[in-house]
Design goal:
CATH architecture of the largest domain: 4-Layer Sandwich
CATH superfamily of the largest domain: PPM-type phosphatase domain
CATH topology of the largest domain: Phosphatase 2c, domain 1
CATH class of the largest domain: Alpha Beta
Number of domains: 2
Largest sheet: 6 strands, antiparallel
Number of helices: 8
Radius of gyration: 24 Å
Strand content: 15-25%
Distance between the termini: 66 Å
Number of strands: 11
Helix content: 25-40%
Shape: globular
Order of helices and strands: HEEEHHEEEEHHEEEHHHE
């Protein structure tokens, strides 16, 4: 019998074509459902300062949910600072890959902080250690954020710095006492414990991570700055503004801040780390 007289090869070819068309259709539907993330320009810089070890750790990553930047500052003066900051950042990056929708971001932030705190406490086994942490997710015009400790997130907008997160320090407690009339301004500013942390990761009495109730609405030209206290305790807002306005890319701005810190050559300069995000 002549090949193909029973029509079988044509049926096989036809089925293959239909299968390919079906796969292309499914792929096109999936691509339509997958949200697109606009380009984000990222810059970062870091210096060890006058310390013997770099206890700051940072990273960033982008998924369909947005761009995550996370920075942790292992507490200076305590052992295991580097281990704590590295564990914290690594865990946040790993867990972020499992976030499937923007509505899950608050849970991701709070739950990851809780888990990180438990893991650090377990790793320390009674030894001293801990870390601060700030994390931000840039999704379109919105910034979702979480923070614990005294590292900060700032928005630089048209020559003005907008603070995003409060610091978890005893200084904030003193400020509230001053505002309520319990202490004087001099007593508030002279208290030697004003920079002492009252909440951080690796703390057995860890309270919670401060999380935005609603995302921060960004405007065109905004720059999101994440930095450890080694940055804002060394550079004034005027100095930071000069660097931001005189630089082009976030990378140039971040490195400019680090260069300015190192140029001061402070005898007790802390580790300093900065990340800058800008919508592309």
């Amino acid at each position: 019998m002549p090949a193909g007289s029973d029509g079988t090869p044509y049926l096989i070819v036809g089925a293959a074509i239909l299968l390919i068309l079906l796969m292309l259709y499914v792929r096109s539907r999936l691509n339509k459902r997958k949200p697109e993330v606009p380009g984000v320009r990222i810059g970062n810089g870091q210096t060890i300062g006058a310390r013997n070890e770099q206890d700051d750790y940072f990273a960033s990553t982008t998924t369909s949910i947005g761009t995550l930047a996370v920075l942790a500052d292992g507490i200076s003066g305590l052992a295991n600072g580097r281990m704590c900051s590295t564990l914290a950042v690594s865990t946040f990056l790993k867990n972020f890959l499992n976030v499937e929708h923007v509505r899950h971001i608050p849970y991701f932030l709070s739950e990851t902080a809780r888990r990180v705190n438990s893991e650090i406490v377990e790793q320390l086994r009674g030894a001293q250690g801990g870390t601060t942490l700030v994390a931000g997710i840039l999704n379109g015009d919105h910034l979702y954020w979480g923070a614990v400790g005294d590292s900060v997130i700032l928005i630089y907008r048209q020559g003005e710095f907008l603070p995003v997160n409060p610091k978890h320090t005893y200084g904030n407690v003193l400020e509230q006492k001053y505002l309520s009339g319990e202490i004087t301004k001099d007593e508030m500013e002279a208290n030697p414990k004003r920079r002492q942390l009252v909440n951080y990761l690796g703390y057995e009495q860890f309270q919670n991570m401060e999380i935005s109730e609603t995302p921060f609405r960004l405007k065109t030209g905004d720059k999101i700055i994440f930095c450890s206290d080694g940055v804002y305790n060394t550079l004034t807002e005027v100095e930071m503004e000069q660097i931001l306005t005189g630089s082009g890319s976030p990378e140039e701005s971040a490195q400019g801040m680090i260069d300015a810190i190192e140029a001061k050559g402070l005898h007790k300069q802390d580790n300093a780390t900065v990340i800058i995000l800008e919508k592309g």
